[in-house]
Specification:
CATH superfamily of the largest domain: P-loop containing nucleotide triphosphate hydrolases
Shape: elongated
Number of domains: 4
Strand order of the largest sheet: 2-1-3-4-5
Largest sheet: 5 strands, parallel
CATH class of the largest domain: Alpha Beta
Radius of gyration: 31 Å
CATH architecture of the largest domain: 3-Layer(aba) Sandwich
Number of helices: 20
Strand content: 5-15%
Amino acid sequence: MTLEDIVPASAHILVIDDEKSVCITCKRILESEGHHVDYVLTGIEGIRMAVEGEFDLVLLDLKMPDISGMEVLENIKSERPEIFVIIITGYATIQTSIEAIKKGAFNYVPKPFTPEELSVAVSNALKSRAMQEENVYLKQQLNQLRDKTGIVGKSKAIEDLKRQILKIAYSNYTVMIYGESGSGKELVAQAIHHSSQRADKPFVPVDVSSLAPTLLESELFGHVKGAFTGALQKRSGYFVVANGGTLFLDEISNLSLEIQGKLLRALETKKIRPVGSETTIETDVRIVAATNRDLYQLVEAGKYREDLYYRLNVIPLTVPSLRERADDIPLLAMYFLRKAGEEDNRLVKGFTTSAMAKMMAYQWPGNVRELKNVVERLIATADSEFIDEKHLPAEITGRTESAITLSTADVPTTVDELKNAKKVLKEAIYTQVEREFVIKALESSNWNVSAAAKLVGMQRSNFHSLMRKTGVRKE
């Protein structure tokens, strides 16, 4: 679902104002743009219609003859919190506007207003309402996707993977998971375990690449006291810890040839021998392994045992990269957003459509792990309810960030040079801020220069000069 799917081409709008001329003006302006407009002249009737009807937006005057506009706003938001309300009043002050927004109003338009000002305000409200509904839709989809595997996604590639997981989970065959770094191989291994008859037993993940080669044998198979220098007491290895459950060996390609032989023997005999011990221990573990490399290429290069390769590769599964399942990016982003927001008690509600479009177009070389890290970083630095394109890292948006690099010759040598450098840098940064300021105003006004100037409180000629200064062109 995209913003275009949600924004109503013909919105149903209710105007509540005791001045009939204002109501008729709003009706004429908005119906010329394809919207359907009803109006009432009293606050009580306005509350009844807003609560009982199906309206996308309410335009509300603050000064009503029978009941205050604030009371009307409170009643509407109490009964129908999803309805967006724009305040239209000739009595607007900074204080009353802030109070109205605190009570749930989306924005305000002071009287008298131009047709363009009203159109921009309504357009912005409808877009924001659409973004909110889009994020609610994504949350609903997440709740529906809580299947037995625990894997978030509904793309064909992920649905196929889920079916394979459920199909092979109840067997005890060894599984080899292939996939790029960060694609979620451990999550797939967990899904296999939790969908199997071993679900009530331990799931033990081991990152082979993180263990020193000299200690790997001891870590996997355990050791007896005195087996080597530093072995001050007996230690059970991961095979024993995972007994009855699943042992996940990540980055299995990093095993030395010596350990490969011992692992092969353990798989074939279902017995292990702790380092320094003369006796063997029977184990009952299911092995799920993973790698981001082509194991058979390593076999052909003589760096991997062929017999171990076939023992591990009984059931091969491939986890698609994130760029191969781009349709899942909105769901995954919302999942990470909600999870991080709950943990940090943040109130970020979702992503704007432009931000999500950029995220879906990005290649994500770090896959799901990179997406998770980016979302958590955005949550930590968020300054609004919705994450917008401007909040995204430069590598996702394609912005060219200006980096400052100084050679030895560039470093100031006197206090006067330091002051001048500070001034130059301030001007450079301020110019960049000015450019973003102009672009944001134009985007908020559908690139209408007059409306953008009005929005930010500038004369049109001054705003146009700022556009020229910052190199922003309307087209």
